[in-house]
Amino acid sequence: MRLLDEIVSRDESQIVCRKTFSPDEFFVQGHFPDTPIVPGVIQCECCLQAGAVLLQQSLDATPGTVPVATRMDGVKFKRMVKPGDTVEIHVTLNEKVSNAFFLTGKMLLDGKVAMRLDFACSVTSVAGSDGEGGST
């Protein structure tokens, strides 16, 4: 499930993406009846996906690896995001320690913070990427 519509800008330590939430997206159906809003977990996932795209630049040198979320801290929701809203997703790489990356993400709605979180990812090998493993 891809939750990023476009990459607006990117450098080695920051990425800005954009997403417009459609009223037809499955995760707003029934959340909540007559007053749909984008679930907080989906907003977090938008930041995690933007972080993965940001980290992909550094992982290109190590084929067969992917960033995997390991922690989310200090998650704060400040404004409701509704179907039809377009948000900007900003993610900043704060620190890298060994194979762990520490990032901050925020989602802006109309230029104001709608949510923010600190999160960590570690780099892991993809099973079967080297021709071994997987099903037979």
Automatic annotation (TrEMBL):
Domain named ApeI dehydratase-like: residues: 10-101
Matching SUPFAM superfamilies: Thioesterase/thiol ester dehydrase-isomerase
Highest taxon of source: Bacteria
Hydrolase among keywords: no
EC number: 4.2.1.59
InterPro entries to which the protein is assigned, alphabetical: ApeI-like, FabA_FabZ, HotDog_dom_sf
Keywords: Lyase
CDD domains for this protein: FabZ (cd01288)
Top-rank EC class of the record's enzyme: lyase
GO molecular function, one term: (3R)-hydroxyacyl-[acyl-carrier-protein] dehydratase activity
Keyword Lyase (UniProt): yes
Protein name, per record: 3-hydroxyacyl-[acyl-carrier-protein] dehydratase FabZ
Gene name tied to this protein: fabZ_5
